[in-house]
Amino acid sequence: MWRAAFTAATSLAKTKKESVVKILITGAAGFIGCHCAQRLASSGYEVIGVDNLNDYYDVRLKEARLALLSKLKGFRFFKLDLTDRAGMADLFQRENFDLVLHLGAQAGVRYSIENPFAYTDSNITGTLTVLEGCRRNAVKHLIYASSSSVYGANTKQPFSTDDRVDSPVSLYAATKKANELMCQSYAHLYGLPCTGLRFFTVYGPWGRPDMAYFKFAVAITKGKPIEVYNYGNMKRDFTYIDDIVDGIKSLVDGPLPPAGSHKVYNFGNNKPEKLTDLIEALEQSLERNAVRIFLPMQPGDVPETFADIDNSQRDLGFKPSTSLREGISRFSRWFREHIEKTGI
């Protein structure tokens, strides 16, 4: 409710009339980070991006995203690991950020089973480094990425931010819930305004190759079979990247939350779609048929996600409008233009 209650509050843009508002984006070479950096830098903000460019997936894709961002006048980039305490402390002190958009994290539910320490290093230690940088340098607002994975074994639908989220089914989910608790503690102890965003299956151009829709596209175009888990009985609240960025920009543009506040919002499409519908949309847009191999549910996965976005709509004006077929069509056009041509 803080947005409605503080509509008369001073916006971030108005606090610095004589200079450009400076924003740090962690994970700037990542999928959501790249899109946010592009939108915000193009909108007149000064954006500083950091990323460690790890090899969780093909680094060339991250470099290609950065190549696009490097053309923008309002963007600068530093290769830096969030766990580098000295490096991050120096960056915060030197740049004097107004706002931080913390999107850097080790992503992926299944990979957390194979490499758990990557998640405690990046998601726990890395987030703590960001929090320390914010509180020691008077950052006015920390916006950070959480995940729909925090809902874990919850069976009540749709998932609401009022629901308890103490039954994670993966280490990745546990680290994201830990991030929410860490931000709550810093909001309480140091008055740092924090806003967490639980993203629901974000997809689109320049997306992550480890996600199902991207893997399916690669396999379909190469004539290889796709692995369909839980025998196809899966639903996801697929959310197109532009709708996510619209919501984040609205939050950045809007009034500053009061000191000590901590709010968490769902950023989802509010419309679960069948996995089979996603596959059919890819088949149609790529003009090729998929060969399906049906498999049981994987460890750490859940059969359905469904976002209750009433609070997000009321407080932030978040209103996704891109249908799955339109979003997949846009992704497929990009995929053919970039991935098939470059081989990345």
Automatic annotation (TrEMBL):
Keywords for the protein's UniProt record, in alphabetical order: NAD
PANTHER family reported in the protein's UniProt record: EPIMERASE-RELATED
Residue stretches making up the NAD-dependent epimerase/dehydratase domain: 23-252
Superkingdom per UniProt: Bacteria
Listed CDD domains: UDP_GE_SDE_e (cd05253)
Native species: Pseudoxanthomonas taiwanensis J19
Protein name in the entry: UDP-glucuronate 4-epimerase
Pfam families: Epimerase (PF01370)
